[in-house]
Each structure stands twice: as structure tokens, then as C-alpha cells.
Amino acid sequence: MSLAYARNDWYVIADRNSLEQGPRRTRLLGDEIHVSGSYAHPVIKDASGRMLPTQIKFDHVWTTVGDRPRPLFDIPEGNEPGRRLVPCGMVRVKCSPLRAVENFLDIAHFPFVHTDVLGAEPYTEVEPYKVEIREQNDEVWATKVKFFQPLAAKSAAGGITTDYEYRVPAPTTAVLYKTCPPKPEAQDVITIFVQPRSETECDVWPWMALYDDDTPYADLVQFQQMIFLQDRSILENQRPIKLPLDPRMEIPTRSDLTSVAYRRWLKKRGAFYGALAETL
Amino acid sequence: MSAAFTLYDYVLSGNCYKIRLFASLLAMPYQSVAIDFYPGYEHRSERMLSLNPAGTLPVMVTSAGGQVLTETNAMLAWMALHDGGAQTPWFPAVDPALGPQVQQGLAFGAGLTDSIGLARLHAMLDWPVDGEAAKRAGLKHLRALELHLTDRQIDGGLWWAGAHPTIADLACFPYVALSPDAGLEHDGFPAIRRWLYAVRSLPGFATMPGIHPLHELR
Fold first, then answer.
1. Which of A251, B9, B68, B201 is most buried when burial is the number of CB atoms within 10 A of its CB?
2. Looking at beta carbons, which residues of chain B come within 8 Å of A87?
């Protein structure tokens, strides 16, 4: 049941750089997938040799194994002129794909895991913010999130209070809008596209759409990789490995409102792949 | 103070971190140039190959004299000597007892890169290598290090050799500390854990992704 739901979503399976390295094998929802071809003409096949549909969006190659796939969401900011689009490659994490998304939605851990970058002691308080499930497009949104950050982005010159908004358009994608240091009226967009290899292992493809014409590409990618790899060791040690949906199994606090909404939303749509659906 | 050297650097590289960590411990200023090792494979670009035909990172170019160093152990030696001359406690090169021991540790550190380092690249970035073989070799190295450090601790020592940390400790620290990235946990290695804690406690210690700071108990 959970797998049937997950099969009808689209997932990132490759980017330009990975295709240039030649054919490779990967996994999606527990099954082997063969990836070859070029970025313009990617060839994605399942283990039986069946060609899978592809589409290129947000600088990545997407595929689905479902018979009735839901349409792939849009991130309209990606088309705005003047933004720099920054695919960041892939990082493998031995954790539930849902835990990877949930971690991305959390700010309370910033001072402790991203010390002196995205947060710092003693500025650990998460002020009240707003969370809703937007019915018209069935997405989780967290808005009016504020946090003090010593080095919010590669383009930041010093500590600033950063405004955040989070959006979950699909169970394995999280989009973050945050204050753009050199252009305060605009928002930088940072996303993670999570490729579920299995319920307990995933490949995470970060992607950014930034207003930053000055920072060299290598610095932008490394900033993102630094942040994400600080999370990786924490993610691999979370227990239970699958994300529990029963609120009594992991007691949330007020700062976890986004996570609470995300788990409820997963439960409501039956998106249980990578989740612990049993109750206490 | 002006930069002592330029470091061609990749944030996730344990070998690059050896240099960043030592510079932080010595408070030695340097200039860093980010190289897109992954996903861009920039270390194999023409620009980088002309600097280092071996195509490895890090690369160090010293400010005085413009020496190009491509071996991490040589960089650590250069930094120790640049900082403290022949008397530096970090690299007692001509001490008849300690000098050879430090060389032993430097070579062991290179072996950690080739085993744990490779297993980590495979586990983290899907590097096309035999990840299981690299992991087995890494486990052997951890066992050997545990034995060495246990002997040292029985003799009242804490570091790889002598009473002061040396570049041998720094050559070994990163990939041991990062081994959980490759699924090699520290639980079974008490002497290693004690030594890791000692390195993390050094004044001026710097972190990298996967190596967390010690939080002060206030």
C-alpha cells in the first residue's frame, strides 16, 4: 500500500554531471535502475529492461515507476531571470527518505549541528511561526520562521536574522525560501530532492536558485555540501530508522510544528514508504 | 599577518582537512581556493592538472618561494617547520627516538586515506570503487591503531608518539574520526575514542562536516 503510493511520484535519478561519468546502476524504491544516455537524452530502465518515462526539470533528470503518476510539482522561482541555478550533485545517506526531508524542515538543531554557520549558542530560541496545510494544492507550508544566523549564506557578510519559509510539495521534496543577503527584497531558494533507494537509504540531490552573481560556483556548492554533510552523521544515527507517524512515539515540542504537520500530511495521504505507520 | 600558503581545498576531503586543522591549531593564516572535486571533478581540470599532474587534492603553494606540495604529509611537515623551525614539537624529525615513530605514523595516515577514505567516498558519493574491500581494509587499520594506542596508553602516553601531539596524530585523525561516514563505528575501540577526544580538545581545534565540536559544559 505504501509502495503503491510512492510508485506514482516522480523522483530525481540523475543530473548532467553524473550522466557525463557514463552508465551506472542505482536503486529506486528498492529496485535496481539502469541509468545511461546523455542529459539531453537520458535512458532510464528498470531491472527487466523496461524503459521508464523521464523529464528534465530543475536541472535534474526525473523518472517514475508508476502506472498513473501524479504530475510533478513546479518551483516557479526557478524560472525567474537573474537567478543562478546550482545543482549540487548527490549525497548518499543511510536513513529513511522521510527523515532526510524532515531534518531539512527543522531549525532548532542549527546552533548545535551547524554551529557558527546557521546558528550559534546562546541564540537557540525558535520563535513561534505559522504552519498550515494548503488545501488548494495539498502542500505543507511553514511561514514567518525567523532565526539568528552567524553566516546564513556564502553571500552573507556577518550575522543576520534570517526569514524562512518552508514548502513540502511532495513527500520526498522540501523547498526552503530564505532571506537573500545581497538582495533583501528577494528570497533564495534551496531544495532537496530525495531519491528513495529503499525505505532506509536515500540519495539526496540538493539544488539551489540564488541571487548571487559573485560567489564562485565551487564555493556555493561546497557551502551547501558542508551544511548537508553536517546533518548526514546525525541522520544516520536516528532511531527508529523509519519515521514514526504516531505522535506518541517521538514527543514533539512547539518548535517541531512543521514536522508535526509533515507527519500528519504523510499519514493523511497514505505516504508510508519510509515511515513507521504502526501505533503504540 | 599575510598568508603563509595557498590551499586548493575541498570541504569534504579528509586530507584537505588535515591542513585546515593544523593551520587552525598553529593559528597560521592561509588563503583557500575552493575546488569543485564533486560534482564538478575540477581536480581533473586542465588548470589543476598543470599544478598537480597526479590530480589529487589538496595542493599547497607556499607564499615564500612558491613551492608546490601535493603530498599531505609533506605539507604537514612544511607547516611544522615553517612555524617552529627545527625545534617544533609537532615534528621532531631528528630526534633519534621520536623522529622514526612520527614517520611511521605519517605512513599509517596515508594508509587510512587509501582504505577508510576510499570506503567513505563510496558510501557518501557512490564513488565507483569496491566499497566493501575498502571497508575491510579500513577495519584492519582501525584494529592496528587501537593496538598501537592501547600500548601507548598503558605506557602513560596519549599521542601517537611522545608527550606532545605531532603531525603523525594529525595525519591519522581525520579519516579515523570520519570512519562512521563509511559505516565503521568507534564503539569497539576505546583507546581510539580516548585519543579522538584528546585531539578534539586541543586549543584551536577546527571541525569539518562529520566531525562535531565538543560542546562546552557550562
1. B9
2. 39
